[in-house]
Design a protein that fits this description.
0% strand; 51% helix
Length: 142
């Protein structure tokens, strides 16, 4: 045998070994077991241990017979959403106008849009600003 043929044999063996190891790693990542047939006595030695007396699996609640005949309690009533109290018209107007001017609208248009909002829209400064900004964007100001 010549040295070249030995080197090629070693190279081939290394490639086969890398292929086998990569296939085993891929099977382990996928959760597959070995594909060879297992002898019955080996199968018995590989059998999973019986489950422990206390496991972390889902617990099924036991219902007492008295609980079956108990009248169900009505569900709690949903709480009503409390609307914020409207602020006076003057408190946040300057802030709303300043925000609209900072957004790029001219002061007369911002002022008109601010005062065109209804009292319900003026409940909070944020809501007032949002509705005034929508009015400016629509351009429906006279």
């Amino acid at each position: 045998m010549n040295l070249n043929s030995v080197l090629f044999m070693l190279l081939g063996a290394a490639l086969v070994a890398v292929g086998v190891l990569s296939a085993a790693l891929a099977d382990r990542i996928r959760g597959l077991r070995g594909s060879r047939e297992v002898a019955p006595r080996e199968r018995a030695s590989r059998a999973p241990a019986p489950p422990a007396t206390h496991s972390s699996r889902t617990v099924i609640p036991v219902v007492e017979s008295a609980e079956l005949f108990r009248t169900p309690t009505p569900p709690a009533k949903p709480q009503r959403r409390v609307e914020p109290k409207p602020q006076s018209n003057v408190d946040g107007a300057d802030d709303v106008i300043a925000a609209l001017v900072a957004s790029g609208y001219k002061k007369p248009i911002a002022t008109e849009a601010t005062w065109a909002c209804s009292p319900a829209e003026r409940a909070t400064v944020e809501g007032w600003t949002a509705s005034a900004l929508r009015r400016c964007a629509r351009g429906a100001l006279s």
